[in-house]
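[Automated response] Your request has been received and processed.

Submitted sequence:
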Amino acid sequence: MRAAALLLFAAAIAGAHAPILPALQGPLRAQGNRLLDANGESVVLRGVTLPNLDGTAATYGVIRIRWNLNAVRLPVSVAKWKTGGTRYFDRASEAVRLANAAELVAVLAAQENSGLPSDDTLAFWRECAARFKDNPRVIFSLFHEPSAAGIPGAIDSQRTAND
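Generated structure:
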């Protein structure tokens, strides 16, 4: 009997996993190097990148519940927005809606191949800000992997104040 009880206890321990992270209460704000929720409590984003804005409700549910994460990074393309316009933002809005419905913070991360922000990047973020201004569970990652390599006269591994 005791052996059966120990076996049952061991099985329960082996099947347990960490408690689900609580949903973040927006709006989130930065204070120095900390991210705070609506209650002023420090929060840590734990997430994954989901490429191509292709996730389904089930995908976001797995990210939230199975993987126990609270954020999803959604790479968005300035070039695809430029050619797709409103349709592209409708697709991004649906991805954000699905992420938020699963209690995930959506981090929109602009991708551009030039290594530097362009005038199109600025126009993109203006439209993006207008579209998501009332959503406290969206964070903008303004530029993905900037590089000084596109600056005329830049020398690899050397940085100046102009860079």
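Summary generated for your ticket: Residues 4-12 have pLDDT under 50 and may be disordered. The radius of gyration is 21 Å.
If you did not submit this request, please reply to this message.
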